[in-house]
Specification:
- The chain is mostly beta strands.
- It has two helices and nine strands; from the N terminus they run βββββββββαα.
- The protein has a five-stranded mixed β-sheet with strand order 7-8-3-2-9, with no helix packed on it. A four-stranded mixed β-sheet has the order 1-6-5-4, with no helix packed on it.
- Strand 7 (about 65-70) and strand 8 (about 75-80) form a beta hairpin.
- The model is unreliable at about 140-145 (pLDDT under 50).
Amino acid sequence: MASHHPSVKWGQKKDYILLTIAVQDIDKPEITIEPTKLHFKGQQTENLKYDTTLEFFDEIDPKTSKYHKTSQNYWEFMLKKKDPKKPFWKRLIKSTDKCQWIAIDWNHFNAEDDDENEDDLGGKDWGNLDNMMKQMGGDMSGASTTDLNDLEDEETDSDDEPMPDLEDASKSKSDEKK
């Protein structure tokens, strides 16, 4: 059976790359992070196989890079750039070929001239994943503990009101002559 590339989104800040790999129902993939590449391989319960190697545009520090599963479908990586003083990466991978399965994640992307806070990690505390998951209403297994039953909305909004009856349009002079 042939392997497929997973959907990959990436963004960058001054000193790290944020990478999201979207795959469904893969609990324990093989993940290898090296200074110049990342290898992701896994198989779904429905036997669909994913296997991809990303050869990075520049080097990262695998020892300080981290990853975790954020839900049933997503794996997130925080890849620390080896030299944050170098210019921002022009692209994620070394190859200049267009890969349809790689896209920019504009929510986690800064250009070199952006004034935004450089220490912002996308609102995530990568040092304490348990607390982050609890704040999101889940645990590390991706199971949600959020109870939505208490969200009853007693008020009605303007969309719930009935529409008024339409008025007859006035006849034009050409209609009156007929």
